[in-house]
Amino acid sequence: MTSEENRIHPEYLHRINKALAFIDQNLDTHLTLESVANIACYSPYHFHRLFKAITRETLNAYIARRSIEKAASILMHKKEVSVSELSLQYGFSSNSSFTRAFKNFYGVPPTEFRKKHVDRHSKIRQTESKNGQENHLFEKYICNIDNLIQWITMNSNIEIKETPELHLASITQIGVNGIEQAFERLIRWATPRGLMNSNEAKMARIFHDSFKVTGPDKVRMTIGLLTNAPFKTAGEIHKATIEKSKCIVGHFEIAPDGFEKAWSGLFIWMNENGYIKAEEHPFEIYQNDFREHPEGKAMVDMYIPIE
């Protein structure tokens, strides 16, 4: 959260977090101010003011953006779902209204967005063109992909494994600014309660949004501490669960500026090896504090749930 949001009472943050989770779970239904405010146990007027103060968006703008982003994610990962189906699923009156809203957001219509995504993440495409430019760009793309695959092969250990259900004490973080402070607040809360003392106490981060479809200032994340110890929620601290799932797991020892490259490489490895991402959210589990590493590196496990 931003410094402005840190001045908001923690109980407000806790209730807005419940509303955010409810919205994301029900984007394919008709969401109203009254129904969402009821989840947060506020009057519509009070909820609307708080929601905008914390998320920096009105409720309607947030729902519209998340609907478009959810549709974009489905376009990328589920080629069998048509644009018409997405238009109906997310409450648009027609294909043309959905296409217009999508293009206003991403600059291209849904069909072109899907085609561009395939070009970025698969080697399987037509390379014929009327001139040499497309072939040249494609060859450059393949070279970049091959280099990234080679990098991830050399810098990680990748396995497929069943991940058990995991429980976390957590804080919701919106946007990349303030992530370190969110971790620090969680640690300050957990330390006097003895939650940092067990062997299972590891920091984690769940990505509810994808940087491929959501701006970095609006990406929603859960900053969490793995624990099976009982605890009482308080203010912005809430309970979160990572469901049991089958995952691609990449084990890395990387500098902080290598996270984007590691995630990109892991998703490319997933596609190249024929796996399909599941509905569950990707997440990270940290095995050390990179500030205590002699080379400033993080030992981190990255998880992609798969079908």
UniProtKB/TrEMBL annotation:
GO terms for molecular function: DNA-binding transcription factor activity; sequence-specific DNA binding. Signal peptide: none annotated. The keyword DNA-binding applies. InterPro entries: AraC_E-bd, GyrI-like, Homeodomain-like_sf, HTH_AraC, Reg_factor_effector_dom_sf, SmbC-like, Tscrpt_reg_AraC-type_HTH. Residues 17-116 form the HTH araC/xylS-type domain. This is Transcriptional regulator, AraC family. The keyword Transcription regulation applies. Keywords: DNA-binding, Transcription, Transcription regulation. It comes from the Bacteria.
